[in-house]
Structure formats: structure tokens, C-alpha cells
Design goal:
By secondary structure, this protein is an alpha/beta fold. It has 15 helices and 9 strands. It starts with 7 loop residues before the first helix and ends in a 6-residue tail after the last helix.
Length: 347
Amino acid sequence: MPGDKAKPLLRALAGEVLARPPWWLMRQAGRYLPEYRALRARSPNFVEFCLTPALAAEATLQPIRRFGMDGAILFADILLVAQALGQRLSFGDDGPRLDALDEHAGIAGLSLAGIVALDPVYETVRLCRAALPPQTALIGFAGSPWTVATYMVEGGASRDFRQVKIWAYRDPAGFAALIELLVEATSAYLSGQIEAGVDAVQLFDSWAGILPEAEFDCWVIEPTRRIRDALKRRFPTVPVIGFPRGAGHLYERYAAETGIDAIGLDTMVPLSVARERLQSLTAVQGNLDPVALLAGGAALERAVASIRAALGDGGFVFNLGHGVLPQTPPEHVAELARLLAQPVDRT
């Protein structure tokens, strides 16, 4: 059940130092796996795939069967929340597509009543919970309000995030109403995942790093703190992991001021900073370069050894600094599993 501290991943998130670091990978269920590609072929519509519990559960479980990670991350997408609020969502070769929110119309067409559309995700959680090995933690997740808002306002991926920034600068009160709606929706969504059986949750703030410090405080730190507080009031023992990708020197403030239990490190966070400035505040998770995993061989061995040596004396979960690249050979992930199973030579 949630909060079972016997699971290695949960022990590490609580700050316990383990002989072998527990591990999982962002995007560990995905296109690099032939079994995933075969599964996806059964449901070409990605949104429908995510909301079909039997398929989403199978995608969640595939990497656990093959590699034996300590954590299984729920298969879903951060933009399911945007669709549940009333925004049209589809996926093409260029990524997600949404009907862009206009800063003048604002959030008039959105409603929390649509959150019931996420019920299939909770059924996916229940299916995974029943099928996972007892020592494997199930990780739920959601996009953080700022990152989800960028897609909602831009209508998809963006190079310069011009429209969402213009709205936030010109009309901070109006933009705050969108963030408030997303705080409420995200808190409810993650609560539903926890009630269904996840052991921990992660907030993905993939575009946190594009904001100046004052806006980072307002649109990243404060919404994250509020979601964390809402979850802790109801589920005090369930760990909350934050991943403010690209936050740079603001990582330390994020860790200190949001109240999260663990912080995900992107590839650019120096290991010395992670050890000396962050690991004293919270457990850390990361931060192998996904390209090192793609490359494999000696480069992978060196990188894994360096990360383990730097972070293995504190609360630490091994992961990537971003997601598994689709071109990654599965054999390289198997090699990573072998490397992580070996004891660290500290002589």
C-alpha cells in the first residue's frame, strides 16, 4: 500500500542510504522497446491509448518485466489534465496539439467538472498495483501547472514560449486564474492516483528553466508548494518528487521552499552542487545524460560510476536527467541494470 517503507525506492526517498541505489528511468516505457511498439500498434490514437487501462497498464509493466527497475512509473501523459479541463487534445508527428487558449478569453471554457474523465487512469493504477512485484514502487505523476500551461496557451510545443510569457507578463491576475485552476486539477488528479494505489508521485516541470527568478517564484515554486501541501494534508506519508528541469541556480530554492521530499536533477546539474547544496535539503534523483545511455559502453560505465560515487552517501535514486531516447538500444538499459547491481568501490 502507499507509503510502504520496505520498498527500496521509498526508503531512498526518505533519505536512507542504501548499498545499491534504487532506480527507474523517465520514459522507461516507450518507443525504444519493441514490445511497446507492438502494443502501440493496437491503438494508434495516443490519447485513447493512455485512457485504455489494459493497454496503459501493460506499457507500465513492460520495462519492469524486462529490466527489474525498483520503480514503475504510470504510463499516461501530462496533457490529459488539459483535455479533462475541456481543451481539445491530439498528438501528431510534431507532438501534442491543443486549441490554444487566448489570453483575452482566458479560462472561460475550462471546468474542473471534467476531471472525471481521468477515472481510467486510476483504473490503470489499480491494474498495475495488482501486477507489480511487492518490492517495486508504483510512481504516479502529473505535469506542474506552469509546464502544462505552456502547452495550453501555445497550442503545443514552443521554441520561444512567447504567447504564454506575454499573457503572464501583461495580465498576471488573469494568468494566475489559469494556474489556480491547474493547481486544483493537479491536486485532485494526484490524489486520485494515490487513492488508487501509487506509492509516490512526481511533478514534471519540464519548462521551469525558461523563467526569470521572480516569475519562477510565482509560477513554479508557489504552485508546487501548494500542490505538495494539499497532498500532504491528505497523504502525509506519500513522497512527492519535484523535477524543475533547467532551473539551474534556482534548484536550491526550489528544494528548500516547495517542501518536496526529493528533487529530480537534470543532466546539467553538477554532481558537486547536488551533493553539497541539494542532498542536505532533500533526497536527490538523477541525473545520467540520456545520450550516455544511448552511447553505452565505456562512456556509460564512467558516467554511472561518477554519479554513484558522488551521490551514493545520501538519499539517492538513480535516474536519467531527462527521458530515455527512442533510439536507445534495450541492451544498454540491461547493461545499466547490471552496473547498478554492482557494489561501489569506495577505496
